[in-house]
């Protein structure tokens, strides 16, 4: 069987690993995670979600505190249109964060950043322009445009000296969206360097309707986009994303479906280097298919896939727009509006409207929105549960190497899981050992992990 390592993704005439780690915010795609993959020659994303707050935590800056102080008097105001972000602060935070990461890269792989259009920050075009150009100025290898059509994004970067030098890509969920983006961007004289096709099984925000996401498949959309590009005589690499759980899955998308690369995130979300909390990582490992849902919690209007046990779902916290407000648009946010209606009804003793939205800024900042791909319940196939009930976390390198080298239904266990099995001489019939671990392979090893677990056995 063919492994993913047999393929290459060609960008600007240079071959790279065809595996891209997706952008996970807020700072779930940490610098440590990205650098571990880049060191191996892979491609990884940072996320530009809430970088002012991320900078405060990493570097001791006080961007968030300054904003909260500046608008403290508007805490009870229904209209938040006056709460504008300081664009100099946005730029400084972005450059500080990205330049710090880029100073540590090896040049073997690529470091990209995921930029969400729906991060409107109460002045969509102004803040988007600042974020995009600051990322370019900080030396990022490339920018992936996500969570929106980005019809103006190329124009907003067109005067930057790195506009034609840095890699630029776009995430779409249909050929129609790609066609619209290309038409609106044509005047800049610049085509995207790659297109990420994100299917309905991805984690986080989905580019489909709440009711129709089940009617689509990643394979069909990849073929549709490839056909569209061929019809237009455009040679742009297509990256398949969403629900690609094993190296065998990835190789099939490359060899049979015609993708030029694949993007994965959920399996990297539970890596040691990921910014998720330990509780969230363990919850992912313990999840079952029925524990994952697509809901309308996000105030962006996009459906989201997450664990039903995400603490944010039941939370009714007060909106914290003064400190954050990253999803404010013309002074409004769907959660802000809903929260006020609910609490006004409570105060008046009237029927309380149902809770449907969540304060995504605060909860994402506090890692209480446990977004995951549809295959998250299979994470238990990728590691070992210790006798105390906790799961051994893989490293980013473990996950990367498994994707690159495994074939068919194989899943290679993390090195720490193999060491634990050997050290404890665990009975392979123990409830803590996945049923697919081959019985007599614990004493053997190969250049990667030593054991291949068979997910389908």
UniProtKB/TrEMBL annotation:
Keywords associated with the record: Flavoprotein, FMN, Monooxygenase, Oxidoreductase
MF (Gene Ontology): nitronate monooxygenase activity
This protein's record includes keyword Repeat: no
Q: What is this protein called?
A: Nitronate monooxygenase
Which organism is this protein's natural source? Sutterella seckii
